[in-house]
Amino acid sequence: AFPSLLAAKLDFENEIKHYFESLEMQKRLLNPVHSNLAKTFFNIGLAYSRIGDLENELLFKSKSLEIRRALSKSTFKNDIDLNLVKLLNSIGETYSKMFDHENELKIRLEAFDVCKLEMISENHPEYLKCLFGISNCYKNLKDHKNRLKYLRIIR
Question: What's the CA gap between 9 and 143, in Å, rounded?
Fold first, then answer.
């Protein structure tokens, strides 16, 4: 077991080193509001997720969110921004792992609002992920009335 833990730590260190090198290069070459920067911040958050570092996971996903929000305001209205919805759902999952259900609910409701605003199909996986996430969040907050409200939308 020890050699595999050591290998995992080395893999993580190499992965993080690569992402931070990429991030520094992107910061020099790209506009501060660029989708590649958002992707890199998100990938750093995922790397931290794999080792269970929830604070850094949330920190880097939140940096990605700042960029995605800015990008969503600047895109043409006929562009559907699924990346923003996916990122919000992912951050909701992070808050859930942290047992921070109040912030989880805020993020999940925002994701659902973006789905409605962007007219994302009610059968789309991200739309359904929003509803299930909101429902589970209300369950964790012991708010069964609102939980049922969102479960009924799914049907």
Answer: 40
Query: pTM, whole model, 2 decimals?
Result: 0.86
Contact by Cβ (8 Å): 55, 39: no
The CA distances from residue 34 to 61, 74, 103, 121, in Å, are 15, 11, 26, 27
Q: Which tokens sit at 6?
A: 């050591």
CA-based end-to-end distance of the chain: 46
Could you count the other beta carbons within 10 Å of the beta carbon of residue 67? 22
Scanning the structure block, which residue is given the tokens 């043409």? 76
Q: What is the pLDDT along the chain (155 residues), one digit of tens a residue?
A: 555 655 666 687 888 889 999 999 999 999 999 999 999 999 999 999 988 999 999 999 999 999 998 888 775 544 557 889 999 999 999 999 999 999 999 999 999 999 888 788 888 889 999 999 999 999 999 999 999 999 898 87
Measured between alpha carbons, how far is 38 from 35 in angstroms, rounded to an integer? 5
